[in-house]
Write a structure and sequence with these properties.
Blueprint (H helix, E strand, L loop, with lengths): L1 H19 L5 E9 L6 H11 L9 E7 L2 E4 L5 E3 L14 E3 L6 E8 L1
Parallel strand pairs: 1-2
Antiparallel strand pairs: 1-6, 3-4, 3-5
Helix pairs in contact: 1-2
Bound molecules: zinc ion (ZN).
Length: 113
């Protein structure tokens, strides 16, 4: 039910922005989601469809832009995109630690009318 809360706050932000811009309708919301976040696109869309009913955002499309997670090697400092398996540094084989890259969830842009 994690998606419920994030979808609600995302919708609130989008509506605020649209209101400020004097929009009559939100056509599309482009979201950035980090690969490490546990948010599931389909759930966000499902909650969004329910919550946006009767608002400026009703019927808006959601576009998801997934950001690859980046790790930093504890041994040599190398920053690398997380390999499909494990977290090992491609340079020295050391243990990679998560960075902030990959935990994103925010609105990149809105398309309004
Ligand atoms: Zn390394």
């Amino acid at each position: 039910m994690h998606e419920y809360a994030v979808t609600q706050s995302m919708l609130n932000i989008a509506l605020e922005e649209a209101k400020r811009a004097g929009a009559s309708k939100i056509l599309e919301i482009r979201l950035v989601i980090g690969d490490l976040s546990t948010i599931i696109d389909d759930s966000v869309q499902m909650y969004f469809d329910i919550m946006s009913e009767g608002t400026l955002a009703q019927g808006a499309r959601l576009a998801f832009n997934r950001v690859k997670a980046e790790f930093k090697c504890r041994e040599c400092g190398e920053v690398f995109v997380k390999p499909p398996k494990g977290f090992d540094c491609p340079k020295c084989g050391g243990l990679g630690m998560p960075t902030d890259r990959g935990k994103e969830f925010y609105i990149e842009s809105l398309e309004i009318d």
